What we know:
There is one protein chain. By secondary structure, this protein is an alpha+beta fold. It has one domain. The chain is built from two helices and three strands, in the order E-H-H-E-E. The protein has a three-stranded antiparallel sheet. The chain is elongated. The model has no long low-confidence stretch (mean pLDDT 86).
Amino acid sequence: MFRVINEKLVIADLNKRGERIMQKVHGLDGHKHYDSKMPLSSVKKLLVKLGMIVETYNDSCQIIMVARKANKLS
């Protein structure tokens, strides 16, 4: 089951540049920033399979996906 609040689902994740920056920031405190376990491409495939329309936006440090329910014409 999935739900979409206000008809849109927004998912954001770091791109390679964003990951490098986070590694440096966390490294200053002696910590490590762990990468995502599931790539956004897999998330997008799942959402499309569930019948959603997915738009992807690339920013300088992150990737943003906005998903919405497809309009059913009948």
